[in-house]
């Protein structure tokens, strides 16, 4: 479970750390980026520094959001750490998409636990992101090899989750399936109706099999009807109205129709941002609003 | 001189435009990114919106800084437009580095006018950046095909310049050689002593020839002794103390030793940022300080 620090990069008031560790869930080495805010270094945090997990989209590594979403200044402003997991296991023995696509297998783990061979050996990103990684980070930061700094970071309890596209799906599904774990959830252009849209159908078929009853456990459109609302919790979602994937691959209207009749009515806020697309230009624009939202739920403001 | 708008991307309060046009200086089509701030769209600017030119570093296209430097929010805050030129001409007929490197020729135009064949046909980036492009943008925004918006942008007169690494060199040299054109200059980790450091020596030899007297016209270490100080003008420079290129490729101490005895003594501020490297994590961290510096010189604050 030990981590290796590959790079430590000064950024804003803190540091971006590129680390790697060996994962039991995926059977591979996994890359993770961490942003440790100013408060980790100057010791001004009141108590433990909470953390926000950012799940990335198809084809991404931990670097895309680290470079382009610009969470750093917001993390310093409120005093939370960021965790950027990878989007899948990688390596010579990890099976790839038999169709040669970029929307399944490597770079496209979809944050589920695969049950179908050959993917079930490595593609256990649900277990990895929501359980193994938080525990491993907690152990790492309690060890003698923890990154230099005076603060204490909470990777397990006072935590929230967000993500983009496939990672937005992963954040919403993971939040609802771990409703006592995360304080809040947000998403940028999530694949919110995965059982009827092409990316989700391909991934769920490949990882979970043809039997659609197995898909329901990860389907946000189902989960909002099955997971009882927990007081104080909220989900914030943004879509760009000019998102090139929205009509066919995301279909937010399917989800939005279900929310008012669901157990989560009035606690899910889906906002349509006029003229924005699916890119990190969109994500970075709304990061300050999402940061403030999570900071409130994490007790920082 | 007509521009084609390839993409118009909503970002922060304005839009990032990816445009292309035909250049006489380079004999090629040239890509340019523009950030048009909120004030271009809402008409709240008092008078013409000034612009800030950002010259990028080795291997970059206009996209690197657009995606990773985070000027957008600062441009909205003060009300200036951004111009991100490409780093060189590109195309099937543009000569490449005979050594196959990434530090000369394509992606590495160094913002000079080449005199040596075969580079002198296309590699006239000095002429392109400081003269042709500003004029072409002015014509474009005066034409019937200008980007939709209500504001008026000044690309010619109330303008400033900045850049990173090779582009930081280009900004400082271009500023000093056009001292009545730009209101202010800043640079992130500029190649400030190009006549004694490897990247500069390779570029100047290839573009300008073996005769080092031809190199002086672009050398910041010479220009600060030859260009009389103009009242009110200033240069702001940041380096990261952990910049991996600093010792061998940038050598700021050579320049800093000359400043106090130069015509520009007390008007060039070189700051060393503890622990920062050469990357866009460094650039984006100091963009707010540079934005405020330019906004002051452009009369916006």
Secondary structure layout plus pairing:
The structure is a homodimer of 301-residue chains.
Chain A lengths: L2 E9 L2 E9 L6 E8 L1 H5 L8 E5 L6 H7 L3 H7 L2 E5 L39 H18 L16 E5 L2 H12 L4 E7 L9 H11 L11 H7 L8 E6 L5 H5 L1 H7 L9 E6 L6 H18 L4
Parallel strand pairs in A: 4-5, 4-6, 6-7, 7-8, 8-9
Antiparallel strand pairs in A: 1-2, 2-3, 3-5
InterPro entries (chains A, B): AB_hydrolase_fold, Esterase-like, S-formylglutathione_hydrol
Enzyme class (chains A, B): hydrolase
Family (chains A, B): Belongs to the esterase D family.
Contiguous helical run count of chain A: 10
Radius of gyration of chain A: 18 Å
Count of structural domains of chain A: 1
CATH architecture of chain A: 3-Layer(aba) Sandwich
Q: Please tell me the overall pLDDT of chain A.
A: 97
CATH superfamily of chain A: Alpha/Beta hydrolase fold, catalytic domain
N-to-C SSE string of chain A, H for helix and E for strand:
EEEHEHHEHEHEHHEHHEH
Low-confidence stretches of chain A: none
Which strand order spans the largest sheet of chain A, edge to edge or round the barrel?
1-2-3-5-4-6-7-8-9
CATH class of chain A: Alpha Beta
């Amino acid at each position: 479970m030990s981590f290796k620090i590959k790079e430590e990069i000064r950024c804003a008031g803190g540091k971006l750390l590129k680390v790697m560790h060996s994962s039991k869930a995926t059977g591979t080495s996994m890359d993770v980026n961490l942003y440790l805010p100013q408060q980790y270094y100057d010791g001004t945090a009141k108590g433990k520094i909470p953390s926000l997990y950012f799940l990335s989209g198809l084809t991404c590594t931990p670097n895309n959001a680290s470079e382009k979403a610009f969470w750093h200044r917001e993390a310093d402003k409120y005093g939370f750490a960021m965790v950027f997991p990878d989007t899948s296991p990688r390596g010579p023995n990890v099976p790839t998409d038999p169709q040669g696509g970029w929307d399944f297998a490597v770079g496209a783990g979809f944050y589920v636990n695969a049950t179908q061979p050959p993917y079930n050996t490595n593609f256990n990103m649900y277990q990895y992101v929501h359980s193994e990684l938080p525990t491993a980070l907690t152990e790492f930061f309690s060890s003698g090899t923890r990154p230099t700094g005076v603060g204490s970071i909470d990777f397990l309890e006072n935590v929230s989750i967000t993500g983009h596209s496939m990672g937005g799906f992963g954040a919403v599904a993971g939040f609802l399936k771990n409703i006592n774990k995360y304080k809040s959830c947000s998403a940028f252009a999530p694949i919110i109706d995965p059982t009827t849209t092409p990316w989700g159908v391909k991934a769920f078929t490949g990882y979970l099999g043809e039997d659609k009853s197995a898909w329901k456990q990860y389907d946000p459109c189902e989960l909002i009807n099955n997971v009882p609302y927990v007081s104080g919790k909220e989900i914030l979602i943004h879509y760009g109205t000019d998102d090139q994937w929205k009509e066919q691959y995301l279909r937010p209207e399917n989800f939005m129709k279900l929310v008012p009749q669901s157990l989560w009515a009035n606690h899910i806020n889906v906002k349509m941002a006029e003229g924005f697309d699916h890119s990190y230009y969109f994500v970075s624009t709304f990061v300050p609003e999402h940061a403030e939202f999570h900071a409130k739920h994490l007790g920082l403001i």
